[in-house]
């Protein structure tokens, strides 16, 4: 467990904490210190696999893993899903060369400063509280995935149905405790210093449910690799 948690997302120039987690796609543990002093690493911290947006964010991140590896940069995907449930999912939905870890207690998210949003009736104090009036007014625009811009709940239901995702008790427990968990990706240099990040916290939540532009990430990766 990290020595301390931060009350804001880590930013470029910050030193990433060490976090030790159960590996999903291999045996044993995986940690941030495994890469420190060795190779840069892109760390993606996501909600559980029950979240259809995160499943797509994970796929997007995995699609760039090969290009990052050519630059000498590793990738680590972290999900808020219990280990056995996560292993079962990736067994049937494999992503080539994916290194993933399980963090159902969201330790890594707190260590990197990603809050778990509290949903309220009408009070909004981003990024810690969001009123249901604000949430229900949001529209998700995913032209390749959704037939039209849709509300969060309608989009979630549509994507889950499209994926044929079957919920388990593990999924329901993760939703109960971490439905409002915000996510992000952090590019660390070989010394464990953040050099680039993309989080749902930024820009008052306008990046929620989105993915970073591939060109932005690869540009930052090229600078880290130089």
UniProtKB/TrEMBL annotation:
<dbReference type="InterPro" id="IPR013766">
    <property type="entry name" value="Thioredoxin_domain"/>
</dbReference>
<dbReference type="GO" id="GO:0016491">
    <property type="term" value="F:oxidoreductase activity"/>
</dbReference>
<feature type="domain" description="Thioredoxin">
    <location>
        <begin position="10"/>
        <end position="226"/>
    </location>
</feature>
<dbReference type="GO" id="GO:0016209">
    <property type="term" value="F:antioxidant activity"/>
</dbReference>
<protein>
    <submittedName>
        <fullName>AhpC/TSA family protein</fullName>
    </submittedName>
</protein>
<dbReference type="InterPro" id="IPR000866">
    <property type="entry name" value="AhpC/TSA"/>
</dbReference>
<dbReference type="InterPro" id="IPR036249">
    <property type="entry name" value="Thioredoxin-like_sf"/>
</dbReference>
<dbReference type="Pfam" id="PF00578">
    <property type="entry name" value="AhpC-TSA"/>
</dbReference>
